[in-house]
Design brief:
alpha/beta; Glutamine Phosphoribosylpyrophosphate, subunit 1, domain 1; Rossmann fold; 3 domains; 8-stranded antiparallel beta sheet; 7-stranded antiparallel beta sheet; 19 helices; binds fructose -6-phosphate
Length: 611
């Protein structure tokens, strides 16, 4: 949420910043802006997309070897030119970009106003730029000291990069709660909210830790704590290639990411399912396994799609490992005074590893003595660094704002965990253990097959693209898939959609059904199959339009449904990994046909770093 990028070195900064902003645009697209330091600081900012900024800057002076850039997801103040970042302090000494929220900005603003400061924008960031400047001028201190002192007065979250007109040889960066990565080049440094704008220049990076401040000259980096202790930077090598963050010939990132799923699932279990398929090995859980397998209760926390993956995890862990599981929205968990026992294990699920509510819920669980594990996709992000253990999903960068391959990778990890724990707890027999592993290994090929039917999904999308409402129904393992299908449709096509357990339909939603209502029913072969068939009949009796996801060769539902989308047979515990694919494609095609911006749906952003 909000992307920040910066450069200091010997190359012209502008092209690096503008390309970096395009890479980061998925984090927010309400406005974009840059500031370049040449003889003076030039700041350009525009409401809308990075392309709007680019057009605006076309005939302007873009000289300078130092610069900062920002793409915004609005929190404080409307998305307009004035509220766009960078923010310049009142007397022009500082210009800053910020990702996060300054919670006590109201109080700070009042104090600055009492001292003569006037504000142009409604943002919390401008308050910070003026606070730094006030301390700098009043205390007659260096930019570094002014930044440090200002940050000790701030409550909230920030990833910041700051330029000072009077100290034109440096950038100052700081982190608390919002991510910042520094790329190390040859006599140059790159900074960004994540590694995507950096990877084409260098693979050596430093992830700033909480409360770190970096003072960066083109040939020198010094890292300090907020209390001014000198720190030793830890240099990591990025495991990321530029082509992973390109569209690779697809029209949209979302489509690319849907089609990548056979590979991303394979990458997620590769090396973890041992070659003769007789065992599962999850290195990140080795140390915690004794406590995990004795857990009295597992609480899974997450938001949005990750929460849906958590619901699939509940079915998996209770069914295969017989451990009681509760699944909580991270935002609810943290505010409702939850009962957390020392022998509970918390599993936090997050693609970005930066979701503010999930991070806060983890803190709460840790304070209560619970062991916390993470299932995350972004290596080096905050959640994996905060947890006691966990498993990376290896889905590769997910750029489309609507999550697709991250969901199936999360479910793959949860499946491996459930099979492993089931075996460790002697719930699953040797035979079933091997059978489940073999089924898991066959999933990528089965998804390949589903993807070859994409033209069929496209035709159905064309028929229902103008519907005002959709209902998604599923039972058991397929209930969370119904929720996920509905979320995908509403977030990218803006059609109202609800997911329900199929049997709940008759307790209310059935009143909505008429001849205009498409109802997507996940009716693959599992133990509730017959019951779902009855639910389909109930829908048809009310003239609803049934689009059914069925197991290949199903003839019963074919007779009743208006459309059937086939998926190959698999063990019901693995069904969500297959059943979600047609739903992702259906949403994608409907959104494209409605002219929606699928990769950057309105009002949304990836990586929700505000609470
Ligand atoms: C939906 C979607 C969001 C995220 C949610 C959590 O397609 O992408 O609902 O799943 O914001 O994000 P992470 O997984 O990064 O914690």
């Amino acid at each position: 949420m909000c992307g920040i990028v910066a450069y200091i070195g010997s190359k012209p900064a502008y092209p690096i910043l503008i390309n970096g902003l395009k890479r980061l645009e998925y984090r927010g697209y309400d406005s974009a802006g840059i500031a370049l330091l040449d003889k003076n600081i030039s700041t350009y900012k525009r409401k809308g997309k990075v392309s709007d900024l680019e057009a605006f800057v076309e005939d302007k002076n873009t000289n300078g070897f130092i610069g900062i850039g920002h793409t915004r997801w609005a929190t404080h103040g409307a998305p307009n030119d004035v509220n766009a970042h960078p923010h310049v302090s009142q007397h022009g000494h500082f210009v800053i970009i910020h990702n996060g929220i300054i919670e006590n900005y109201g109080r700070l603003k009042k104090r600055l106003e009492d001292r003569g400061y006037k504000f142009q924008s409604e943002t919390d960031t401008e308050v910070l730029s003026n606070l730094i400047e006030y301390i700098y001028l009043k205390g007659n201190v260096s930019a570094e000291i002014a930044v440090r002192l200002a940050l000790t007065k701030v409550i909230g979250a920030y990833g910041l990069v700051i330029m000072c007109k009077d100290e034109p040889d440096k950038l100052i960066a700081a982190r608390k709660g919002s991510p910042l990565v520094i790329g190390i080049g040859k006599e140059e440094y790159y900074l960004a909210s994540d590694a995507t704008p950096i990877v084409e220049y260098t693979k050596s990076v430093i992830y700033l830790n909480e409360n770190d401040i970096a003072i960066i000259k083109k040939d020198e980096l010094s890292l300090k704590s907020l209390t001014n202790e000198k720190l030793t930077p830890e240099i990591h090598t990025l495991d990321l290639d530029v082509d992973e963050i390109e569209k690779g010939g697809y029209e949209h990132y979302m489509l690319k990411e849907i089609f990548e799923q056979p590979r991303s699932i394979l990458d997620t279990f590769r090396g973890r399912v041992v070659p003769d398929m007789s065992a599962i090995h999850l290195g990140g859980l080795l140390e915690v396994l004794p406590r995990l397998k004795e857990a009295k209760r597992i609480i899974i926390i997450g938001c949005g799609t990750s929460w849906h993956a958590g619901l699939v995890g509940e079915y998996l862990l209770e069914d295969l490992a017989r451990i009681p599981v509760e699944v909580e929205y991270a935002s609810e968990f943290r505010y409702r005074n939850p009962i957390i026992n020392k022998d509970d294990v918390i599993i936090a699920i997050s693609q970005s590893g930066e979701t503010a509510d999930t991070l806060a819920a983890i803190q709460l669980a840790k304070e209560n003595g619970a062991m916390v594990l993470g299932i995350c996709n972004v290596v080096g992000s905050s959640i994996p660094r905060l947890t006691d253990g966990g498993v990376y999903t290896h889905a590769g960068p997910e750029i489309g704002v609507a999550s697709t391959k991250a969901f199936t990778a999360q479910v793959t990890v949860l499946t491996m965990m459930a099979i492993l724990l089931g075996r460790e707890r002697n719930i699953i027999s040797d035979e079933n253990y091997k059978k489940l592993i073999l089924e898991l290994v066959s999933i990528p090929e089965k998804i390949e097959k589903i993807l070859t039917y994409s033209a069929v999904f496209e035709k159905i999308a064309a028929l229902y693209k103008n519907a005002n409402n959709f209902l998604y129904l599923g039972r058991g393992y397929f209930f969370p898939v119904a929720l996920e299908g509905a979320l995908k449709l509403k977030e990218i096509s803006y059609i109202h959609a609800e997911g329900y357990p199929a049997a709940e339909m008759k307790h209310g939603p059935i009143a909505l059904i008429d001849e205009k209502m498409p109802i997507v029913v996940i009716a693959a072969k599992d133990k509730s199959y017959e019951k779902v068939v009855s639910n389909i009949q109930e829908v048809k009796a009310r003239k609803g339009i049934v689009i059914a996801i069925v197991t290949e060769g199903d003839t019963i539902i074919k007779e009743m449904a208006d459309h059937v989308l086939e998926i190959p047979y698999t063990h019901e515990a693995l069904g969500p990994l297959l059943a979600v694919i047609p739903l992702q494609l259906l949403s994608y095609y409907i959104a494209v046909m409605r002219g929606c911006n699928v990769d950057q749906p309105r009002n949304l952003a990836k990586s929700v770093t505000v609470e």
